[in-house]
Predict the 3D structure of the following.
Amino acid sequence: MENDVLLTEEKNGILILTLNRPEIMNSLNFKMLHALKAQIEAVRFNTDIRVVIITGSGVKAFCAGADLKERVTLSPMQVKEFILTIRNLFSSIEDLNKPVIAAVNGIALGGGTELALACDIRLASNNALMGLTETRLAIIPGAGGTQRLPRLVGKGKAKELIFMGQRIKAEEAEKIGLVNRVCDQGELLNEAMAISTTICEAGPIAIEQAKYAINRGMETDLNTGMAIESNAYWICIPTEDRLEGLAAFREKRKPVYKGE
């Protein structure tokens, strides 16, 4: 199982990446980070893939964060390397030119919650448990948690959760906007697939530009954000997909988008 720390499956334009270390709650070690990095880099230029789903193997955990058994064997310099590796990986997930859905199927603590935060849409099973618990180990979130969490749930709530190292259940996570929706565990992946299938019906260039405009616009003032949106819109105008969308509407049929 250690040889297959990341499982991959493709279904109708959807890539499912499954963290596969269930015996230690899918915790993140260097090997898994490198495997994830390779998949994210490859899918960026794979036009056959429209959506990525990230989930965990088994029924107990999405990802319990960093592998602390590995961590204790690392030198301070290696710990810095790990943090830089995971931070850059999660940023590449956030910046991927395709939507990424986190299907949080259980415990997601520390780096597990940070991985979910880097995704575009977060679904949680009703047994999910989430939180940035690093301060209880005398460290802080190092893979974007101090930055992405307050942008999602607000500064005050983020400080409360991080300062206390608090763990919250799925219902609370949905209430504060940490996850988009909560599902029965048995239906979690089906729900993620249903959302992905709907996204796949839209124009892939439009989806890419919408994600870019939202992500970049959130980091600036409204006027600059509007300019970012305009530039993203202009990219869509000369595409064959836009003409196909108009033709399909006129002919009362489903459009067939090719990402061109």
The chain has eleven helices and ten strands. The mean pLDDT is 94. The first strand starts at residue 6 and ends at 11. The chain has two domains: 2-200, 204-251.
